[in-house]
Amino acid sequence: MPTIYLVLIAVAIVFGVSVLLISRKRAVGPADRSPAITVPGAPGPIPTTPAAVAEPAVVAEPAVVAEPAAGTDEGIEIFERPRFRDRMSKSRAVLAGVFSGVRSRSGITAETWDDLEEALLRADVGVRVTDELLNGLRARVASKEIADPEALLAALQADMIGRLSANERALRFEPGEPDEPNVWLFVGVNGVGKTTTIGKVGAQQRQLGRSVLMAAGDTFRAAAAEQLGTWAQRSGSELVRGSEGGDPSAVIFDGIESASARHIDLVLADTAGRLHNKTNLMEELRKVRRVAAKGRGRVTEVLLVIDATTGQNGLAQARQFGEVTEVTGVVLTKLDGSAKGGIVFAIETELGLPVKLVGLGESIGDLVEFDPTEFIEALFSE
Amino acid sequence: MFDTLSDRFDGIFKRLRGKGRLTESDVDEVLREIRTALLEADVNVAVARRVVERIREQAVGVTLSQALDPSQQVIKIVSNELTNILGGQTLKITYASRPPTVVLMAGLQGSGKTTNSAKLARWFKSQGRHPLLVGADLQRPAAVEQLRVLGRQIDVPVFSEPGDPVSTAARGLAEARRLGRDVLIVDTAGRLAIDADMMTQVRQISEAIQPDYTFLVIDAMTGQDAVSVAEAFHQTLAIDGVILSKLDGDARGGAALSVKEVIGRPIAFASTGEKLDAFEQFHPDRMAGRILGMGDVLTLIEQAEQAFEKDSAAEAAQRMMDGEFTLDDFLDQMQQLKKMGPLSGLLGMMPGMPKELKGAKIDDDDLKPIEAIIRSMTAQERRKPEIINGSRRNRIAAGSGTSVGEINRLVKQFSEMQKMMKRMGGMSMGKKGKKKMPMMPGGLGGLKGAMQGGLPAGLPEGFPDMPFNKR
């Protein structure tokens, strides 16, 4: 019996309170309170705060990405860049059969469309983007602009590349005063590979001749700081860590201050993995982001790390993290598995977040800049 | 973010109203929506196709009864089908006659193997067993250290040694025998399904320790790839059951359905939080509702049970049904509600919520002005808000830092709410309600029946007077 009471109470109160809040919001109007409030039921993506979109630094001062310094050559020698095609072989195996089926037909039939739809859906592109892509092509086939399967595949490929071409993908490093380190913050859900990504980025940046400090802001997961410490040692980076269960903002702030004092170029700040629907943990992260901007350093990248095997939930992740931490780019890890990473289409087009790095393997050199053309060609090739 | 299946159906069934029977083409349209819902929940394309075909067989020729809402009828078919797929035989752990019972944990990198190894150890402990954890993930830096820390937290010993993972696992088994531990849980390195070397390694570990159970840990957020992952591991290892991790996120978790359908092994456990005790046996019926985006009432109930003080809630509920619910009770319940977690999360779990509420962004801070208003009232005003006149209003507004308009709105909303609660009370007590909640013996059990398939017994229709419905 008490259970019934609880349910009634919960339902009634949740409902009542929500109605109250919404009617309050309507009445009070948009000028009031936090800017993130959107009209309930409004279509389309929830706009992030303006600050998340504006990237003034790029225009004002060309970001130095790959320094043509002596260190660079050395770096290239050590990290031979893997090809998407080679590393995504498993992804191709799944899709190649579908595409060869499409090619083998003499015309464009109903099965052609079914095959293409299936291929895109299996690549985790998602129902919405798939429909958009295919509807556009259907119109062009109907108007006789596209006549044969080969042209159809080429057009699809071009459309998909077109969807990914708009964004600036280089990691932003702005050289400044010696006591003003760049700060790159890494966020994401649990188990996507944040710490490993930091380790690899750190090693690569060291190869570029930059001094690096890693701040172990993951104070929650057991032994996360040890894991980062191993990476710091391997790459010859400094490490700042706090106590387990301590305040991550404080650890990262200390890291930035310490980097500033020691004239270190770049701070890579780790954070604990968290699910984006946990309000309290996301608030903690909001604080981390705020505090990181308070020190002597400048936060030039906030990178959301996403596992390439993630399905449609990836969009929700990008939206939530984007809103809370002003994400500047995405790192797509583990693309060398059988995953195809199709969720990047929804993330890039709906949220305008560029994919900056992809992980194509276990070694340090396997974390490379995202190349949409290569990525899509790898998906399509046989 | 996604429309629920019932939202999708609304449009279709509006046109179908008045028809006595679903025709083939009606069914096609409905099935397309079901397919989209499944795909958006990350159910594998091939699995979705098979499921939709099975639903078609059941749905064609369904007689549309006038009394029952046809969309609910179809939803019930879908939900039952999903529950059947997810459910079936459950995994019952039989302990080895010659201990230890050996459990091997496998999965992709980052799926949560190490954490779930510890959670499973804790679960075995709660069953009166004495587990030993073995850290055979020598790949990821500090993985063993992580396992040791977790082992300390749950007071379970951890064995590991540097070197070769296969011999570490074998030594772990010997260690368990020596120490007389009756369950052995071996955590292995994460791997990508394609990595032949790593797959060979985990097979060698499996051959060395001859596990009684091999669990595959799958991330609830996994997309289409879940199927190939599961197939690859199943071919190599013969999986006995699946552990679904990160189910406390907002992913629909279609991966669970796909994996169950493809390898035919039950989902044994689900991990539902960061804490080590957030680990439970899997509930197929809840998962079906979740995949269809129909809310998760049972989880809501559980959260409520934890957060609410039973006595005061029962009292408040009684007063609520009698129409004697005061602003004091409201304030009190609101405080308890906050303990259940963020409001927006709760809203997501409630089935049948109007769209305006589902999509709304609600910040818990928005509750503060409401609390301030109520706290600025006298005891008498809280009991009888109707006595609040112009001068009282001014005083309350000044005291709470709000405006007279806001106070008016609160009072008005509150009286609407009171009416609504009274009606709900009548309904559930079965006095005159058309739709009684079957709630007789066993409380929760009865409710489970009522909520199965996410059918909120008359919930959305129960709130016709709320202001936004009039808009």
From TrEMBL, chain A:
Q: What keywords is this UniProt entry annotated with? A: Cell membrane, Cytoplasm, GTP-binding, Hydrolase, Membrane, Nucleotide-binding, Receptor, Transmembrane, Transmembrane helix
**NCBIfam families per record:** ftsY (TIGR00064)
Q: Where in the cell is it found?
A: Cell membrane
Residues annotated as coiled-coil are none
Q: How does it sit in the membrane?
A: Peripheral membrane protein
Give every SRP54-type proteins GTP-binding domain span: 354-367
The similarity annotation says: Belongs to the GTP-binding SRP family.
Gene Ontology annotations for the cellular component aspect, listed alphabetically: cytoplasm; plasma membrane
GO biological-process terms attached to the record: SRP-dependent cotranslational protein targeting to membrane
Q: Which residues cross the membrane?
A: 6-23
- Name recorded for this polypeptide: Unannotated protein
Name one molecular function that GO assigns to this entry. signal recognition particle binding
TrEMBL record, chain B:
Picking any one GO molecular function of the record gives:
7S RNA binding
Short name of one Pfam family for this protein? SRP_SPB
Task: Print the keywords alphabetically.
Answer: GTP-binding, Hydrolase, Nucleotide-binding, Ribonucleoprotein, RNA-binding, Signal recognition particle
Record-annotated SRP54-type proteins GTP-binding domain positions: 266-279
Return the GO cellular component terms, semicolon-separated.
signal recognition particle, endoplasmic reticulum targeting
| Example GO BP | SRP-dependent cotranslational protein targeting to membrane
* Gene3D superfamilies to which the protein is assigned, alphabetical: P-loop containing nucleotide triphosphate hydrolases (3.40.50.300), Signal recognition particle SRP54, nucleotide-binding domain (1.20.120.140), Signal recognition particle, SRP54 subunit, M-domain (1.10.260.30)
EC id: 3.6.5.4
The parts of the chain that form a coiled coil are none
- InterPro entries listed in its UniProt record: AAA+_ATPase, P-loop_NTPase, Signal_recog_part_SRP54_M_sf, Signal_recog_particl_SRP54_hlx, Signal_recog_particle_SRP54_M, SRP, SRP54, SRP54_GTPase_dom
- Provide the top EC class: hydrolase
Record family assignment = Belongs to the GTP-binding SRP family. SRP54 subfamily.
Name of the protein in its database record: signal-recognition-particle GTPase
Per the UniProt record, the source organism is freshwater metagenome
